[in-house]
């Protein structure tokens, strides 16, 4: 059981530092809205991960293989991110011009809608079909190594989620330290950068849909890395 936990922790850390839209929006939420708002957003993201885990575990492999490799889903998810990013960029630009003379306190301490943050975290994670591919790959690789034991599988995935959350909390606390340096212009620039990042990832996902063979090569490299890391951790484990 300890070996299962030790094998899961690096995967949780890897997931926490995966450079995707959720990574940047989490940092933005921490900087602009504070620790509690960022945690609520992150819990929504985690609910999305748990949903993908359950879907990948209980659905048939053939169905999931078709879903995760369906280019139309990458195109749809990419277009949603792209439109959302463009809409956010335009909206924030208009708001900045309208509030150009508004002071920092008014801009940075507005009340957070925790329900909308939770839903935003869930949806932002859910539209990235690559996350489903990640969890399906983990299940395919590690479930046989866990002897298909439901208790071991439960502990393994719970350890991934907990380590992922703990790393995210550290990221949130570090990002929160930048809060006191904010000015209205800095707030605007942070939001604009995040919008541009969402647009870039939207374009990237869409391209993945149009060029599925390139995506498959990248997925194979990730899967090989996971296998190599797991074999190494087994050799160096003394428990």
From TrEMBL:
<keyword id="KW-0812">Transmembrane</keyword>
<feature type="transmembrane region" description="Helical">
    <location>
        <begin position="117"/>
        <end position="141"/>
    </location>
</feature>
<feature type="transmembrane region" description="Helical">
    <location>
        <begin position="71"/>
        <end position="90"/>
    </location>
</feature>
<dbReference type="Pfam" id="PF01810">
    <property type="entry name" value="LysE"/>
</dbReference>
<dbReference type="GO" id="GO:0015171">
    <property type="term" value="F:amino acid transmembrane transporter activity"/>
</dbReference>
<feature type="transmembrane region" description="Helical">
    <location>
        <begin position="6"/>
        <end position="27"/>
    </location>
</feature>
<keyword id="KW-1003">Cell membrane</keyword>
<feature type="transmembrane region" description="Helical">
    <location>
        <begin position="193"/>
        <end position="211"/>
    </location>
</feature>
<protein>
    <submittedName>
        <fullName>Lysine transporter LysE</fullName>
    </submittedName>
</protein>
<keyword id="KW-1133">Transmembrane helix</keyword>
<feature type="transmembrane region" description="Helical">
    <location>
        <begin position="39"/>
        <end position="59"/>
    </location>
</feature>
<dbReference type="GO" id="GO:0005886">
    <property type="term" value="C:plasma membrane"/>
</dbReference>
<keyword id="KW-0472">Membrane</keyword>
<feature type="transmembrane region" description="Helical">
    <location>
        <begin position="153"/>
        <end position="173"/>
    </location>
</feature>
<dbReference type="InterPro" id="IPR001123">
    <property type="entry name" value="LeuE-type"/>
</dbReference>
């Amino acid at each position: 059981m300890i070996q299962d936990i030790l094998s899961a922790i690096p995967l949780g850390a890897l997931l926490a530092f995966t450079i995707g839209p959720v990574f940047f929006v989490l940092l933005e939420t921490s900087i602009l809205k504070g620790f509690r708002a960022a945690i609520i957003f992150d819990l929504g993201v985690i609910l999305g991960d748990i949903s993908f885990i359950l879907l990948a575990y209980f659905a048939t492999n053939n169905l999931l293989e078709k879903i995760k490799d369906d280019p139309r889903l990458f195109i749809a998810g990419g277009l949603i991110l792209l439109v959302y990013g463009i809409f956010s960029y335009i909206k924030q630009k208009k708001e900045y011009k309208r509030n150009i003379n508004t002071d920092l306190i008014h801009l940075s301490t507005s009340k957070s809608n925790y329900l909308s943050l939770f839903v935003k975290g869930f949806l932002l994670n859910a539209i990235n079909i690559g996350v489903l591919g990640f969890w399906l790959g983990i299940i395919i690789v590690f479930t046989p190594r866990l002897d298909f034991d439901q208790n071991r599988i439960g502990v393994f995935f719970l350890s991934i989620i907990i380590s992922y959350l703990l790393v995210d909390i550290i990221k949130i606390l570090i990002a929160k330290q930048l809060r006191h340096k904010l000015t209205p212009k800095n707030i605007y620039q942070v939001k604009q950068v995040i919008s541009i990042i969402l647009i870039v990832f939207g374009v990237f996902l869409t391209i993945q849909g149009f060029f599925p063979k390139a995506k498959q090569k990248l997925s194979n490299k990730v899967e090989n890395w996971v296998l190599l890391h797991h074999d190494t951790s087994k050799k160096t484990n003394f428990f």
